[in-house]
Amino acid sequence: MSDAHGHHDHHHHHDRTGAKQPEIFSHERAAMLDDPAREAYAPTERIVELLDVPPGGRVLDFGAGTGRYALAIAKAHPDARVVAYDVQPEFLTMIRDRAHAAGLANIEAADAYQGTFERVLAINVLHEIGDADIAAIRNALAPGGTALVIDWDGGIERPVGPPNDHAHSIPEALDRLQAAGLRAEERHDDRFPYHFVLIAGR
Ligand SMILES: C[S@@+](CC[C@H](N)C(=O)[O-])C[C@H]1O[C@@H](n2cnc3c(N)ncnc32)[C@H](O)[C@@H]1O
Fold first, then answer.
1. Spacing, Cα 127 to ligand 1 middle (Å)
2. Predicted model pTM
3. Of 3, 27, 68, 144, whose CB is crowded by the most CB atoms within 10 A?
4. Residues with CB under 6 A from ligand 1
């Protein structure tokens, strides 16, 4: 969709071609996303650090869920603007309530976004989005911008997360990103024993 100024809005659609997981993660399982146990293998503080938001940067959390990470980013970077994007309105309501309760004015929760971003975060999202959404992540990057893509490693045995046939191995993930026009590199990090950490740019 374009407005009178020719700006494009990215709205959600239902083309999930290429997605590895048959269904998206339901808002009915929100409590799992808020589980403090996640900190042991996907530490929020480290994710905020890896994202490396530049001063005054615009950040897109693609598939933000309950806002666990988007809210932490907004809090850590008061000068940044964070858009928490998700297709499930139940999640967007939760994020808005939490932002309000925390007094955070630099975060917006929406099912659409405009413009480009210096940083995009996609955590536990790659295996459930289609190829068109990976292209949308690419198109959302400002010149020089980077996407931090963290997801369950489907190439290892894990006690948590989706079954391996619903997750990507590292080579599969790199191939999918490359096919959508993103150059990605693994950024191995010992604090993520069950996930791969990729940094992607245009
Ligand atoms: C497993 S949850 C992860 C949520 C959050 N990133 C986290 O790690 O706590 C996946 C999220 O991606 C969202 N999602 C799935 N497909 C999407 C799409 N095409 N566009 C935006 N969000 C999507 C789901 O609604 C869900 O909130």
1. 10
2. 0.95
3. 68
4. 12, 24-25, 33, 62-65, 68, 85-88, 91, 123-125, 128-129, 133
- Residue nearest ligand 1's atom 9 by CA: 33
25-82 pLDDT tens trace = 999 999 999 999 999 999 999 999 999 999 999 999 999 999 999 999 999 999 999 9
Cα(63) to centroid(ligand 1), Å:
3
Q: What is the CATH number of the domain that holds 125?
A: 3.40.50.150
The DSSP element (H or E) to which 136 belongs, if any, is: helix 131-140
Torsion angles phi and psi, residue 196, rounded to 5:
-100, 150
Q: Which atom of ligand 1 is nearest to the CA of 33?
A: 9
- Atom of ligand 1 lying closest to residue 16 CA: 19
DSSP 49-105: HHH-PPTT-EEEEET-TT-HHHHHHHHH-TTSEEEEE-S-HHHHHHHHHHHHHTT--
| Range of the structural domain that residue 84 is part of | 48-189
How many domains does the chain divide into? Answer: 1
CA 57 / ligand 1 centre spacing (Å): 22
Any domain includes 127: yes
Q: Is 27 inside a domain boundary?
A: no
User: Is 201 contained in some domain?
Assistant: no
